[in-house]
């Protein structure tokens, strides 16, 4: 669909060039709209075969293990939304590197020749999130630059081996010969009868195996052929590139309807308001969009006549608004960090704590699979004195996620951000994170504590460590305790009275305990004071999560 030579997007109500209203007749297409006979052949061998095409709304990484716990596979639990707004949730194999870079908005087609159920058990993190055991076998990614298809090995088949049948036939022939020879007096003739019986049994068996194989083989062939057809269909043919305009850094909000629009559009596609007028009527020194509403018409027109403004007015871009919001949660705080010891002098550090908000701009995941079979050979001696050598095999298959996140901070700087694995599995491109650290430093030496990692969009956080954990008994204190103990021991030896020495030592230790209770208290307070500002920010974000996310969602 075009108007004034411009391509229209799915939700467009007005032409962005002339402002004229357009009829809504644009629609996304399905695979069968483009290829009506797509499944005709496959349905012969797989009557239940189905496809689904949609945009990726959500992806979650998880694992499944067998009952023994030694075999692990990993999957992506994906949520797709199709052209009609229907949502489908299903697992796909995470060990395929084609899915290392899944991004929300990616157009994905699923081909399910039959239902495949996963029988291994869900890991704890996946419980409550993964709500069915189905696996999609054929997955096609309709990327910007072409399609990629993958197929799990569930439909693989192997040809029955002739050798196996000959071996089996030989055994059968010997048994049959033995039976025939035992029951009759045929002599050498029994061998011939035995061979005849064996062949009569083996040929149909072999044939039925071959037929079954041919059927499976034909099924695999038509699955592959169907996949190949889908592989030819691009997101542009399906119309998915017209779902929404690509976000640009200088996108702005339409002053009338709050719709996100590109800076160079003449008219808002949602409400049809001319953007040129809207941008011009804003005074250059004013950034508040509200001020537009306060001005009356006469003033607007006067302004227009007297002082035509350049089109790039002072209106803030959506990106600037987003960075401004993120700036509100940047905190940096310095304060002396004193660690008090009960017996030795206090330690003084330069303490600092800081937190920042970032948005995930890219995610690259990688799953490493290790599959090792351990063989152990051991010898046991039984009660009769015999030695017996045994071999056991023990298979361990593991599937490990490693990933890299790229994020953008409130200054627009892009860098790599580390996250704990448990949080990484939940984190997607577009998510907002709040990250807090603390540090104690003495001269050039410092130690940084990861106080928290908070995925605001997913409402999940991890607090791996804290400056609260810092505490060590100094060498001097240990030496002092030893010294007093030795002193009391000497006293006991000298005076021959155990009570006096032990009593003195006991008294000393009670004193130490009381003192350290006080220092513990002071140390705790000191650590709390240091991280208070970043903890307050964490609670502020957590308590206003809903409003904050609603605001940021418009600015994504
Ligand atoms: Zn037009
Ligand atoms: Zn508008
Ligand atoms: Zn073992």
How would the blueprint of this fold be written?
Layout: E1 2-3, E2 6-7, H1 31-34, H2 42-45, E3 50-65, E4 72-81, E5 87-93, E6 107-112, E7 121-122, E8 138-143, E9 146-151, H3 162-183, H4 189-231, H5 235-238, E10 252-253, E11 260-261, H6 275-280, H7 290-294, H8 297-306, H9 318-327, E12 331-339, E13 347-381, E14 387-408, E15 414-417, H10 421-424, E16 432-442, E17 445-455, E18 460-462, H11 475-495, H12 498-543, H13 545-554
Helix pairs in contact: 3-4, 11-12
Bound molecules: zinc ion (3 copies).
One zinc ion binds at residues 3-4, 15, 17-18, 20.
Question: Rounded to an integer, what's the Rg over CA atoms?
Answer: 37 Å
Q: What are the low-pLDDT stretches, counting only 5+ consecutive residues below 50?
A: 278-313
What is the β-strand count? Answer: 18
Report how far apart the termini are. Answer: 27 Å
Mean pLDDT: 85
Question: In this structure, how is the largest beta sheet organized?
Answer: 7 strands, antiparallel
**Mass-distribution shape:** flat
Helix fraction by DSSP (H/I, runs of at least 4): 25-40%
């Amino acid at each position: 669909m075009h108007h004034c030579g411009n391509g229209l997007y799915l939700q467009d109500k007005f032409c962005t060039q002339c402002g004229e209203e357009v009829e809504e007749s644009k629609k996304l297409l399905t695979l069968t709209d483009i290829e009506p006979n797509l499944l005709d052949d496959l349905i012969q061998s797989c009557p239940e075969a189905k496809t689904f095409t949609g945009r990726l709304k959500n992806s979650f990484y998880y694992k499944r293990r067998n009952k023994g716990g030694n075999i692990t596979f990993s999957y992506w639990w994906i949520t797709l939304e199709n052209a009609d707004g229907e949502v489908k949730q299903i697992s796909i194999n995470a060990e395929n590197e084609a899915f290392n870079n899944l991004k929300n908005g990616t157009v994905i087609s699923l081909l399910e020749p039959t239902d495949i159920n996963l029988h291994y058990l869900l890991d704890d993190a996946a419980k409550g999130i993964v709500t069915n055991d189905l696996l999609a076998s054929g997955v096609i990614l309709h990327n910007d630059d072409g399609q990629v298809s993958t197929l799990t090995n569930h439909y693989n088949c192997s040809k029955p081996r002739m050798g196996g049948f000959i071996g089996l036939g030989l055994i059968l022939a010997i048994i049959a010969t033995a039976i025939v020879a035992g029951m009759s007096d045929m002599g050498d003739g029994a061998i011939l009868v035995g061979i005849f019986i064996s062949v009569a049994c083996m040929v149909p068996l072999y044939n039925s195996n071959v037929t079954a194989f041919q059927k499976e083989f034909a099924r695999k062939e038509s699955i592959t052929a169907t996949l190949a057809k889908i592989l030819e269909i691009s997101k542009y043919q399906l119309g998915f590139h017209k779902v929404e305009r690509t976000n640009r850094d200088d996108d702005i909000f339409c002053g009338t309807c709050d719709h996100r629009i590109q800076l160079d559009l003449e008219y808002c596609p949602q409400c049809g308001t001319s953007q040129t007028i809207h941008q011009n009527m804003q005074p250059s020194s004013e950034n508040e969009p509200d001020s537009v509403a306060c001005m009356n018409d006469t003033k607007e027109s006067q302004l227009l006549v007297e002082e035509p403004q350049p089109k790039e007015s002072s209106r803030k871009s959506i990106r600037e608004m987003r960075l401004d919001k993120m700036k509100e949660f940047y905190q940096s705080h310095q304060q002396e960090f004193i660690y008090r010891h009960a017996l030795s002098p206090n330690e003084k550090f330069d303490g600092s704590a800081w937190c920042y908000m970032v948005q995930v701009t890219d995610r690259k995941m990688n799953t490493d699979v290790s599959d090792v079979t351990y063989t152990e050979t051991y010898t046991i001696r039984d009660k009769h004195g015999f030695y017996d050598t045994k071999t056991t095999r023990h298979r361990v298959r593991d599937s490990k996620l490693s990933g890299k996140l790229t994020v953008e901070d409130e200054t627009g700087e892009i860098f790599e951000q580390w996250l704990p694995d448990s949080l990484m599995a939940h984190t997607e491109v577009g998510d907002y994170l709040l990250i807090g650290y603390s540090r104690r430093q003495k001269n050039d030496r410092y130690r940084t504590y990861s106080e928290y990692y908070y995925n605001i969009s997913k409402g999940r956080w991890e607090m791996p460590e804290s400056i609260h954990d810092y505490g060590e008994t100094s060498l001097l204190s240990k030496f002092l305790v030893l010294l007093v103990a030795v002193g009391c021991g000497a006293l006991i030896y000298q005076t021959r009275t155990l009570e006096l020495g032990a009593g003195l030592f006991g008294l000393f230790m009670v004193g130490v305990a009381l003192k350290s209770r006080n220092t513990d208290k002071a140390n705790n307070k000191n650590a709390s004071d240091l991280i208070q500002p970043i903890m307050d920010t964490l609670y502020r974000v957590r308590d206003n999560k809903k409003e904050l996310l609603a605001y940021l969602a418009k600015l994504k």
